[in-house]
C-alpha cells in the first residue's frame, strides 16, 4: 500500500493551472498564479529542492496515512493532566525556549519517510529537553528499515512509529545513517556503522493529543509534537507568511507528517510554527507557518497529533 497516494475522495472540479500534476512546481507562471490570489496570507516562490520536479513527481515525499483524532480517544492522556499544566501564552517557539536542544531541519529526499523523520525528531528533541543538555540526533532510518508495522519509503502511521519507539527504540543517526533518500531503504541493522555500542533510545508513555489547548500545553511543557496534514499542491511552493490552501483547491496530493514547534500571530492571523523535512532551502529555512484555530488542511486533528516521553536512566518501559 502506498500511503502517499491515499487521498480524500472529492468531486472532480475544473483544476487551476497550479494544480495540474504535470506542471513543474517551480514554473514561473505557476508561482505568479499562486501569488495572484486575492486575500492570500502567504507568498509563493520557487524552492530549490523542487527544481525540475512536477507535482506528480513530488507525491513520493508524502507518506502519512489519514487518521483522525476521533479514532484515538482511548490513546489520549486524561484531561486533568493538561488542566494541571500552565496555560498557553500568546506565542511560543521551541527553538528559543530550548536553545541548542532542538535539533536542526533535515531532508527526507525522495522517500515517503516523513512519518519516520518527524517521529524520530520529536523523540530526539524531547530527550535533550528532558535531560537539559544536547543529545545525538536519533535515526529515522531505524524506523524506515526496521519498523515492520509501517511501509518504509511508502509511508507510515504516527501511532505505529511511536509504538515502535516505545517497544523497540531507535539508535542514533550516526549508528544507522539515513540512506533511503533515493527511495530504497537498506536492510535493518544490528550493529552500528560508527562502531559504537548498538543502544536504542526508547520512549515510555506514548499518546495522542486532542485539542489545540492541549497541544499548546503539551508542547510548551515537554517539547515538539508530531502531527500530519493534507498537502495541496500550492503548499510545495510556500515561501513565507501564514499558509492556507486556496479556496478552490479541493484535491489533496497526499498526507504529510511534520513537527509542531510553536504558535503565534502574524498580521492578525493566528498560526502554528511547524518544522518540515524538506531541507533548509524550502520555506522559512525548513519551517513554515500555517493557519491556526480552523483545522487548516486538518493539521489539528489528522495524524493524529502524537507524542511520548523519553525513557531516561532508571525508567522502566512497560
Structure description:
The chain is α+β, with helices and mostly antiparallel strands and 318 residues long. It has one domain (3-7, 14-310): Cathepsin B, Chain A (Alpha-Beta Complex), CATH 3.90.70.10. Helix content is 21%, strand content 17%. The strands form 2 sheets. Strands 1, 2, 4, 5, 6, 7 and 8 form a 7-stranded mixed beta sheet that branches. The protein has a two-stranded antiparallel ribbon with strand order 3-9. Strand 6 (254-266) and strand 7 form a beta hairpin. Helix 5 packs across helix 7. The radius of gyration is 19 Å and the shape is globular. Mean pLDDT is 93; it is low at 4-14.
Describe, in short, the structure shown.
The chain is 21% helix and 17% strand. The protein is an alpha+beta fold and 318 residues long.
Instruction: Determine the oligomeric state from the structure.
Output: single chain
Number of helices: 8
In the predicted model, the low-confidence regions spanning at least 5 consecutive residues are 4-14
Overall, the morphology is globular
CATH names the topology as Cathepsin B, Chain A
- The N- to C-terminal Cα distance equals 31 Å
- SSE string, helices as H and strands as E: HEHHEHHHHEHEEEEEE
Mean pLDDT across the residues is 93
CATH 4th-level superfamily: Cysteine proteinases
**What's the total count of β strands?**
9
Largest sheet: 7 strands, mixed
Strand content: 15-25%
The count of domains is 1
Rg (CA only): 19 Å
Amino acid at each position: 500500500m502506498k500511503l502517499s497516494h491515499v487521498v480524500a475522495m472529492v468531486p472532480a472540479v475544473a483544476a487551476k493551472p497550479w494544480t495540474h500534476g504535470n506542471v513543474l512546481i517551480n514554473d514561473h507562471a505557476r508561482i505568479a498564479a499562486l501569488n495572484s490570489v486575492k486575500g492570500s496570507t502567504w507568498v509563493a516562490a520557487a524552492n530549490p529542492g523542487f527544481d525540475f520536479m512536477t507535482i506528480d513527481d513530488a507525491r513520493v515525499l508524502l507518506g502519512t496515512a489519514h487518521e483522525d483524532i476521533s479514532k484515538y480517544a482511548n490513546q489520549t492522556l486524561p484531561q486533568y493532566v493538561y488542566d494541571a499544566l500552565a496555560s498557553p501564552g500568546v506565542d511560543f517557539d521551541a527553538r528559543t525556549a530550548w536553545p541548542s536542544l532542538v535539533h536542526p531541519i533535515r531532508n527526507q529526499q525522495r522517500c515517503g519517510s516523513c512519518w519516520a523523520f518527524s517521529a524520530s525528531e520529536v523523540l530526539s528533541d524531547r530527550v535533550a529537553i528532558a535531560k537539559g543538555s544536547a543529545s545525538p540526533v536519533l535515526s529515522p532510518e531505524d524506523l524506515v528499515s526496521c519498523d515492520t508495522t509501517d511501509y518504509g519509503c511508502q509511508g507510515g502511521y504516527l501511532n505505529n512509529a511511536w509504538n515502535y519507539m516505545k517497544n523497540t527504540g531507535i539508535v542514533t543517526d550516526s549508528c544507522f545513517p539515513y540512506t533511503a533518500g533515493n527511495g530504497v531503504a537498506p536492510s535493518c541493522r544490528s550493529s552500528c556503522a560508527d562502531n559504537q555500542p548498538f543502544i536504542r533510545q526508547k520512549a515510555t508513555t506514548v499518546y495522542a493529543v486532542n485539542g489545540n489547548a492541549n497541544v499548546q500545553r503539551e508542547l510548551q511543557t515537554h517539547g515538539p509534537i508530531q502531527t500530519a496534514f493534507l498537502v495541496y499542491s500550492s503548499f510545495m511552493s510556500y515561501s513565507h507568511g501564514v499558509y492556507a490552501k486556496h479556496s478552490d483547491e479541493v484535491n489533496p496530493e497526499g498526507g504529510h507528517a511534520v513537527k509542531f514547534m510553536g504558535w503565534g500571530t502574524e498580521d492578525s492571523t493566528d498560526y502554528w510554527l511547524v518544522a518540515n523535512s524538506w531541507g533548509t532551502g524550502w520555506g522559512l529555512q525548513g519551517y513554515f507557518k500555517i493557519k491556526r484555530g480552523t483545522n487548516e488542511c486538518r493539521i489539528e486533528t489528522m495524524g493524529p497529533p502524537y507524542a511520548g516521553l523519553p525513557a531516561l536512566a532508571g525508567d522502566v518501559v512497560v
